[in-house]
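Re: the 413-residue chain
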Amino acid sequence: MLGSRFAFLLILCTVAAFELQDLSFAPPFSTFDGQGERIVPKYICGGVTQVKQHFARLTPDRQSKQGHLWSEHKVGESELSAVFNFRISGQGKALFGDGIGLWITQSPTHVPGPFHGFQEKFTGFGIIFDTFRNVEMGEKHRDIRLVMNDGHKDIEAMTSEQIVGCDAKMRYHEGRADFSVWNSSKIRISVKPPMITLEVDGRNSGTYETCFSTDSLNLGSDWLSECHIGITASTGALADNHDVLSLEVFRSSDITQTQQTDAKAPVDSIEHLVHHLEHQLTSVHDGLQNNIKKLKKQEKTSEDRIELLEKNLAMKMAEALDERINALESLNLAGLKEQEAQAELRINKLDETLNSQVAPAPSSLPHSPCSTHPSPHPSLPLTPLVPLGPTHHQARFSPIPSLPHVLCVDTLS
């Protein structure tokens, strides 16, 4: 065991002199930023990228996500070779996407866009690892494809050019019982403009197959030294976990030198367990966060619906109350009018009754029996009054009838 470890370390020391340290990275990622988050040294992390101890996850297995790693330093060489180790996996059995892009361009920083998370116009080339077979692409689809741009082409122009690429099995279904964190894919590239060669080991078996080799990389003189290296991933309606494990970049385009880095170190069971647990916990955490987000969204939707229902209920209650009040007012008004009409009718009846029972007023007073009119018996003479004695009142006259008659006396004071 010790001998094999020593041999592996010796191999690493041999190739270390050819490796571009400012552009290379490998786990464990034990560097932290000011907020205590893990980072990939000398690379800018962006989007939804999460750096773990053993891998950098560009996107989780969730829809509409983008993430990237972008080198802070330029290539600074006229040629290079590299080994890129990555893992594309997810819970989807038949539907999944979209993929990863490895970019060597003159863009000093990442610019988000629709081309697997990067802008469509750039100067340089990209290697697209596309796991979604778009029906519109038809026979033009390749799992691995080279795209080149002089800074003026859009996606349609790039994809309509001659196809440079191949198909390879490089996606893992995490629902399989034999899925392991050691499942990954590797490519080796050699760049010496205008020549570029790519070899792929889709199942990390240690055996590479040539994907393509072309001399069409005509982008001018010394353009490569001004380039930065970037890695992007994106998901749309479909999704996958897009994990970056390592990137080793060398100053020589001799691809045979990178073969020594593929010598596998003895597997440490504890390290494997830690890596496995980290992968599982990351998935669990992501699932919980996604469920919490959904619950919050449902809660917000429910609150909005309750608020709307309360408003509608209050409105309907107000309308019903207004209608009830109006109905009561109308009913009361009609009753009052009816009572007023009945009162007027009764008053009129009372007036008629009173008018019918009261006699009309006389035009003159009745004749007094003591008037100065002639006596009702004119044949009877008036007899002078007989003095009654010395009193303050004196009788003036009084007839003394020979028949019974009314006695009228006028007294004077």
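The first strand starts at residue 31 and ends at 32.
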